[in-house]
Amino acid sequence: MPVAKTIYMDHAATTAVDPRVIEAMRPYFTELFGNPATMYGLGRDCEKAIESARITIAKAINAAPEEIYFTSGGTESDNWAIEGVAYANEKKGRHIIASAIEHHAVLETCQLMKNRGWDVTVLPVSNTGFVDPADVEKAIRPDTILVTIMHANNEIGSIEPIAEIARITRSKGVIFHSDTVQTIGKIPVDVKALDVDITSASAHKFYGPKGVGFSYIRKGTRIEAFARGGGQERNRRAGTHNVPGIVGMGKAIELASESFAEGSRLHKLAETLWEGLSDAIVDVHRNSPSENCLPGFLNIVVEGIEGEAMLLRLDAKGVCVSSGSACTTGSLEPSHVLLAIGLPAEVAHGSIRFTLGRENTEDEVRYVVKEFPGIISILRQMSPTYRKDCREAGGKPYAV
Ligand SMILES: *Cc1c(COP(=O)(O)O)cnc(C)c1O
Q1: Are 206 and 262 in contact (CB under 8 A)?
Q2: Which range of residues forms the domain containing residue 119?
Q3: What is the CA(395)–ligand 1 centre distance, in A?
């Protein structure tokens, strides 16, 4: 039997580089290989290319070009925002506020700062994954120097009320960082309308190359440099620029309006997927919110089954998805996001995340709806935790 074409439904993890992006990058690997910090024509051409990408990116998010700092991606931008603001504002205070559903790049840096003597307040979220702005207001103290709350969550897709939170942080004079890695390049983001001080972005999440991203840092924001050396990026992030990567990211953000236009199609596809799966499978629950959700996001839990088992069986059918548990040092930790929205640990283990994108079709969704229930019934027959008899007797194996 011919091997079926891969059905890629993991766009929150990464995306394929758009061929037009590759074309834009290509000359910067070959004839235009110069170091933008050098003064001869070859270097100046590279410098022009990165400055032109900076202008394109700034325009796309309604920032000024000098507020854009190129980095190696979302993780670096997140780390920088927290450490950089913490150290630059130490004299004012040592209190940081974050939400419980932040990406590990944020949470682990908050933990590091805690180990170094900072105080960190972690805010809860609702059972659909939303931060309550009133909780932010209550948590702010005179020594609070930073609030970090993501624009949209990468596991369930909830889009947070950033502008409302910013009204609070602005009035209290607290710096506000928002991890926008899941939103910039996917849905329209206007940093002035959101009124945030710092955001993080990563090209590989919006059909650009891996290993390149940027931070938006509003003029006047107190933050320490991330890297010291050759003085690049206005002395805040030294290191020779990733010229092809930056050029590719500029091209990818230029093409992002095509993704914005796809929003309603992806919403519909995710809805079709959910309807198909919830019709065919019992004891399945949706973790993604039905409103204020990123287009194409569907995170579900299937009771009595491990996410990894579903992932591997879908993989065998040519379908790429993510499961909620992160395999860290050999042990499976349930997702901190699913725990934060109130799922019991044993239920959270049974999660799977579909994130649809540009190349997904209705036929692909139909294929998954056709194949998935069979996978579930095989796994449930093998499952020691899924007690079918209990369900049939009217009880539920788990209360969700
Ligand atoms: C992917 C992701 C990151 C990390 O970005 P990298 O460029 O892969 O380091 C950070 N935050 C969120 C919300 C993400 O989805």
Answers
A1: no
A2: 19-257
A3: 40
